[in-house]
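Hello,

Following up on my earlier ticket. Below are the two sequence lines again, exactly as submitted.
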Amino acid sequence: MSKKKLETLSEAMYYTLLALKKERHGYDIIKSVAEITDGNIMLGAGTVYSLLDRFEREGLIKSTIQDSRRKNYILTQQGVLILQKEYHRLQLQLLAWDKF
Amino acid sequence: MKYRYRPWPSPDIKDKHIAEKYFEYMAAEGYHLVSIGMKFAKFAKGLPSTVKYSIDFFDGIGIEKNEYLSLCQDSGWDLVCDNQPVYYFRNSECCTSPTPIHTDELTEQEAHKFFDTRCGDIAVVLIALIITIIACFALGFAEAFAVFFLSIRGIALFDIPLLICIPAFVYRYFKLRSLPEEDIGRRCSVIITVKTIVALPIFLMYCNLISFAFDFLLPIPY
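Thanks for your patience. The regenerated structure is below:
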């Protein structure tokens, strides 16, 4: 995935970042996304892991506590900005509904 | 415990989804995946059961690997074996229909291009046939027979493999035609069974092709 693609987030990217407004580990993200969306969005373990790895490399999230099995993550300032940008993009799409 | 070995990775199995279906078919037949080596998959005989398999690709080590595996395990996927960077998972007993390991097309596409589509075996048989035909025309049948079929110390290592491989591939062709497209697991099983039958003859043909190449490039002066 190229860096450019982060200009618009996929559904999985959006929900993963959203879940990381609070500090969480991988499985916690999967559970909380399923909970927030009433089970409509189920993220796969491989998907979440790939995204966490990528977001960390690109500085959108940072790891906090880590033991031998897993790490906890939370959004960085840059991650918050990306998430806000996506939120506004989605809002504009919703507003467009009323204009037609 | 009885074990069954099958050639792996099969060059005929093009993607991981087909391989997963094959493992599921084998489990339904009572053969459960135990391990994967460089060339063979090992199955243990047990009770037939409905199991889901998932194959994923991951190249991390140390804490990254632990984190990835624990995330998969928490999501209902138990690691069966790995042949790095390929990981083979089976659904946990407590979780009969876990969420797929990849639910996002982009992240899945990144990793999954491991199973290539080489048709090495068929290519070797075809090369052997072509060489035989050319030799028959060029040298005359009797000479060609002597050169190719009785080339190594008078032992026919070329025609016997051909006699095994050609019927095996013909059987595979007609058997696959008779099976429905959606029966992926059974189709894979046919492919791999034929591959098992032709493994030794193909190896002999490889040896003979190399031997022929040496004979051709470095002819023994008479």
